[in-house]
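Complex 534.
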Amino acid sequence: MSQHTDLVLVVDFGAQYAQLIARRVREAHVYSEIVPRSMPIAEMLAKKPTAIILSGGPASVHVEGAPSIDAAIYEAGVPILGICYGAQLIARDLGGEVRKTGTGEYGRTELRIEGSSLLFSDLAVEQTVWMSHGDSMTAAPPGFTVTARTDAVPTAAFEDRDRAIYAVQFHPEVAHTERGQEILKTFLYDAAGCRPTWTNVSIIEDAVAEIRAQVGDRRVLCGLSGGVDSAVAAALVHKAVGDQLTCVFVDTGLMRRGEAEQVEQTFREQFAIDLVHVKAGDRFLEKLDDVIDPERKRKIIGELFIRIFEEAARDLGRRERSGRLGGALDAEERSASTAPAKFLVQGTLYPDIVESGGGDNANIKSHHNVGGLPDDMDFELVEPLRHLFKDEVRAVGEELGLPEEIVWRQPFPGPGLAVRIIGTITPERVEILQNADAVVTEEIKRAGLYREIWQSFAVLPAVKTVGVMGDDRTYAYPIILRAVTSDDAMTADWARLPYDVLERIASRIINEVPGVNRVAYDITSKPPGTIEWE
Ligand code: XMP
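Predicted structure with xanthosine-5'-monophosphate bound:
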């Protein structure tokens, strides 16, 4: 990152908390990176961190093979904050004491601040914090001052201001620790001297400079999906290299209603980006004719998507050679042999990189590859979001002027509505689902629930049911309403939608969408269900 930004390293001891800590640090406007605990200290220090945070971890410092860290870290002169397991490591490594006392603390705990503490300097004596530990710190290391206790633990926090080493048994990064963010900020600003310079504006400036340095004056290709990541990546690259960017939007015909128009409107009209809109709905439907197996649907869509994207990239290469932008190719241009654009934009996010083991190589889950890039194409990747968490991507998108509908769009599967149409996919069934889905989205937005719900959508099953409308018997499709809450899509719970919202959705769908006479609500969590129906 830029030299104007301080860096905080979050050393990951294997708990789920490291990413949360890194995000909280960034919310305090300081750039942070997660590093595995196995990284040699010299390598950590070579990154010139302004501070280091040792994260929590699932282990006990007493079990065999418990993760540890080279004690040289304490001598490096870089301010350190140990959290939970990280605090216990400091206690153990520097001559304090950690014991299996038999009284762990889990959940909301009352903390009592003692003596004078830099970390807690602005806080009331009694604090509510979140604990999750079995072993307890029973003595601080020599030279440290104990700064807080709980009923069960006499040494819940300690610090040595001269060495700038701080340890807290509780988790300041979780929302249940009421003043946790203030404690983190005090560590960052007052104890470590970090400057709050990591802002949307600085993120954009850094990304623009980096993209320009990588790309020079060569051409860049970007696949748009309609989702937030590719949209923000494209907008950033466009800000950096303007006309050198061409976006390709493969319209599968299986998008949400109005999505393709939104992409056109935003990128071609608002941003004046060179956009190739490949309207391939017919080709997808033709290949999907009579296909009902979900995995075959996915495979067919994935392969065709890649083929069409490659065609578009080749066309672009020919266009480049013939030295002009925009418009369809004539026959001569089409037959010219040529090399495609050299760079491909990819909306890889920071968590994708961290999950793959802390290296620099993105590891995109194959599941999520549909709608992504062909992986055997000869491109150098431009990944302007690879330092960013999702919430930062959204903030940058807003800063760049992308519309709310794109920036806050709920996740959508690459194969699109195909995995929400159970059984055969026909133009009529796609239209039914698009219309029902549009009602769901409108009503969830109207109720103010769109952002807090992870995904909310309609599913079209392959059965028909009997109903009655006026004096007539109907025999038509039901729509299944699916709405889930989740943090990461790995697990999910069905959303407790208010009855009046459910009622409005159901009555509008039945009244407004021809071919539907019933609405059911899916109350399955994940596991055992999945979010999508196929
Ligand atoms: P499931 O249905 O497995 O979905 O609980 C988890 C998350 O992944 C999305 N999803 C996909 N995304 N290509 C994608 O890009 C796919 O083939 C695919 N299938 C599911 C789903 O919408 C949810 O957010």
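Residues 486 and 492 are 5 Å apart (CA to CA).
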